[in-house]
Amino acid sequence: MRGGRVQVIDLHKSYAEVPAVRGISLDIPEGEFFSLLGPSGCGKTTTLRMIAGFETPNSGEILIDGADVSRVAANDRPVNTVFQNYALFPFLSVEDNVAFGLRYQKVSKAESKRKVGEALEMVRMGQYAKRRPGQLSGGQQQRVALARAIVLGPRVLLLDEPLGALDAKLRKTLQIELKSLQESLGITFIYVTHDQEEALTMSDRLAVMAGGLVEQVGTPSEVYDSPATAYVADFLGSANILDVEVVGPAGHGRSTVRLGGQTLTCRGDASTDTAVKLVIRPERLTLESTGEEGGAIDASIARIVYQGPTTDIHVRLTTGEELVVRRPSERAGHHAVGESVTVHCRADSLQLLPPGALG
Ligand SMILES: Nc1ncnc2c1ncn2[C@@H]1O[C@H](COP(=O)(O)OP(=O)(O)O)[C@@H](O)[C@H]1O
Ligand SMILES: [Mg+2]
Q1: Class of domain 238-352
Q2: Contact present, 10 and 60 (Cβ < 8 Å)
């Protein structure tokens, strides 16, 4: 099997005049694991359903391997969908569920048996072939739903929050399984999730969506380390987002800004004396000197929140702003509320948002 390239060009969709998707364009190369990430209601499912052919766009185009499929019926598109609720037939065995879609393809009984066996092996469900869905756990049912989708040999697999109904531990296991399944199949996966950690773990690239639009497309490290907007910075993990004033350019794509009574060097260009937003990931801050510094700011500890492997230390700057510093718990134990500290940060860890960034 090989993957299909999916191009979505300026898709729009409204339900009874209410816009759900407001102009989305994506270009997903063949064999990529691509995620649509965003909060509930941002238009992820609507986008996926238009690619699948279950929903007709008001305008825009959908191309698969260069061919416009916008007017092609769902079951004639080289795509298949896996839903959160599995949608298995309860009275059919596992193997009959997987074989079901093959009924409409011209395959012999022997060929069908071989394909079903292969698909079940790929999802490690070979030994459950004779069981009914009701005799399987949620994770096993979702594996069967996956086998049923891949047995048809789609070039593109669409997955709508497929792990959403499973508990946290099983989700982690299946995330890794799904990613390696995608790699061995070599087909394109378009994966919908509202879980940022899931999207960062599995995707080659992802689109961060809000309000029916794409805010940013990039690799996990691009969107995490260089968020284009405050919204993206805030949605992916935790971020300190602060209003700062630009002192001046510092060359090499860097600028100097004022924060907490100190002058800091950070990534990003901005014009002097403008108000901009600075994004700092809490795990990139330390309370010990690091050598290569973007700056050091005096502060006092306002709150200490233990979280198991890490501890969040909330500090208040002399100018009143609050920052969260995330430290490995074994390095945080000796700190106490009220203590005076110096927050150290590398210039690379301080990112100015481009002027005009939303949010
Ligand atoms: N069939 C529908 N009829 C009316 N409104 C809908 C329908 N499907 C989705 N919507 C609305 O469109 C918006 C986007 O929904 P959806 O694509 O399901 O978001 P997501 O999958 O990101 O949670 C939401 O405001 C939702 O209420
Ligand atoms: Mg949805």
Answers
A1: mainly beta
A2: yes
